[in-house]
UniProtKB/TrEMBL annotation:
InterPro entries reported for this sequence: ALAD, ALAD_AS, Aldolase_TIM
Binding site for Zn(2+): 120, 122, 130
Name recorded for this polypeptide: Delta-aminolevulinic acid dehydratase
GO molecular function terms noted in the UniProt entry: porphobilinogen synthase activity; zinc ion binding
Family according to the record: Belongs to the ALAD family.
Organism: Thermodesulfatator autotrophicus
Active site: 195 (schiff-base intermediate with substrate), 248 (schiff-base intermediate with substrate)
Amino acid sequence: MFFPEYRPRRLRRNETLRSLVRETELSLNHLVYPLFVVEGQHVKEEVSSMPGVFRFSVDLLKEEIKEIKDLGLPAVILFGIPAKKDEIGSEAYAKKGVVQKAISAIKKVAPELLVITDVCLCEYTSHGHCGIIKNGEVDNDLTLEQLARVAVSHARAGADMVAPSDMMDGRVARIREALDEAGFSHIPIMSYAVKYCSSFYGPFREAAESAPQFGDRRSYQMDPANVREALREAALDVEEGADILMVKPAMPYLDVIARLREEFNHPIAAYQVSGEYAMIKAAGKMGWLDEERAMMESLLSIRRAGADIILTYFAKEVAKKIAK
């Protein structure tokens, strides 16, 4: 096809034509809204580096969940910040832990809302790492047992899905085994299959109080330079029983999302992380870009790359835009 016989602009003349041939759609059904839950009473704290994102105590979740429900969002993912931390992150699987209480509170307000729980130890350990420390390093196999306990405790509390984000080897298999043994074979696992050791997590670590107290997470999270390794990680999780594969972060790794989409038939999720959100918010505040258009363009790009599900702090804003 050559000009002048073929003129691509013919199909761009007006919004009706553009909508008719649009290849990628973004709807609320694709979105998951992250929530931070803290211990205490009457707590609603804005995260300074994430305007519009708050940390809630369980007693104040009711109004937030009502808004999420009324906006038509289908799912939330919970991150808990406990009142006390220890070396092994024991509050992560406490029967009356902050996430466990939050699940119950949410289900009373919106039983149909899908509640996903992040399964990791970093918010709960005194050292801030995602596993058990032994001889100065994160011990992979000891950590697996703790993660399994956390996943089962979330399922018992009423979670609809668990999402291990720790990046320990073999954790999907161990969690699947533990869930099945406890009578939760129906609970799906959304694995953070491809989680890079990224600088874009900074604002989240403020919100979740989960920064490591020594060293970093490069010994278990992935090297940003690698994509073939991402395919190996995803393949392992599929073999171990993952139901959904996640890539995190999203926009800096659109090529990785696309590669996973090509290689696997499983649903693909992508996490538009705190740093991605904060950059758009900051640039919008300064007037350097149109915040709303940048928000929508960024999410469409993640969908276009192949993500079926997007975890994003923009979910409520997208819902309000669509409702206009």
